[in-house]
Amino acid sequence: MEKIWAPWRMEYIAEIDEEKKCFLCEAAGCDEAAREKELLVLWRTEHWLTVMNRWPYSNGHLLIAPKYHTSDLEAIEENHFNEFGRLLGLCKRRLTEVMSPDGFNIGLNMGRVAGAGLEDHLHWHIVPRWNGDTNFMPVISSTKVIPQALHELFDLLRADDSS
Ligand SMILES: [Zn+2]
Q1: Catalytic residue among 47, 61, 123, 125
Q2: How far does residue 6's CA lie from ligand 1's centre (Å)?
Q3: What angle do CA 98, 128, 159 make, to 5 degrees?
Q4: Does 148 reside within a domain?
Q5: Residue 139 is part of a domain; what is its CATH number?
Q6: Looking at 3-7, 24-28, 102-106, 150-154, which range is the least confident one?
Q7: Is 123 considered catalytic here?
Q8: Rounded mean pLDDT of the chain?
Q9: I need a surface site. Which of 4, 42, 60, 94 has the fewest CB within 10 A?
Q10: Average pLDDT over residues 97-109
Q11: Per-residue pLDDT tens over the stretch 67-94
Q12: Nearest Cα residue to 94 out of 129, 42, 49, 146
């Protein structure tokens, strides 16, 4: 039997370990208000959470994810979708109030081929759109986000008088 000695495996394994730190699970497990802002956790319900995307397609790009780590849509219990619907409505309302977008893209990428950056933990994207932002795809690759801007928007979205 051929013996394979592959030192680069160590690097690969280290990377895999790195990937195990699922940022959505980290956000779901966060129980300190101070860390919520650092992790960009906007809202939670019993089974779901909304976070701001740290690598947004556009300003105000939010994510809604179940608190449990799953890539299987059918693993989500049917009666948990009510909460999802409420969070979706809240995201749409607050983004509208704070950013006045002209429309939204709302969707779920399943699998790497569909563009999922984090395949193992389902998450829905809420992306506000503005008339004239038609150069959507080129914008994605060149977007640089200043953390300061993310935290300012975080405060604005959280500051909801009506709830
Ligand atoms: Zn996870």
Answers
A1: 123
A2: 30
A3: 25
A4: yes
A5: 3.30.428.10
A6: 3-7
A7: yes
A8: 82
A9: 4
A10: 93
A11: 999 999 999 999 999 999 999 999 999 9
A12: 42
